[in-house]
Amino acid sequence: MAGDPLLIVAQLAAQGLKHLYIDGGQTIQAFLAAGLINEITITRIPVLLGKGIPLFSQLGGELNLSLIDSSASDNGFVQSRYQVLAQACSVEKTGSDCRALEI
What we know:
Layout: H1 5-14, H2 25-33, E1 39-44, E2 64-72, E3 78-86, H3 91-94
């Protein structure tokens, strides 16, 4: 699907969907900016990169997170789940109250 995150979520909610998997740098940023993500999973791979594209560079502000769970796999990957406590919000654009949906 393509388009405004709020419209996408409204369309999917009308179909009875309650949980969405959001992936891709620009897509994640758009859904975070719209205040539509309440949980985020970050996986760290044990490789140091000298250069790269930051996944969260376009947020325009900080997001407060609270650790839910963290685990390490045998191959060295570390996966952490966080609850999003404070979100970048688009109240001025949508008039919404910026409560996170179950995404």
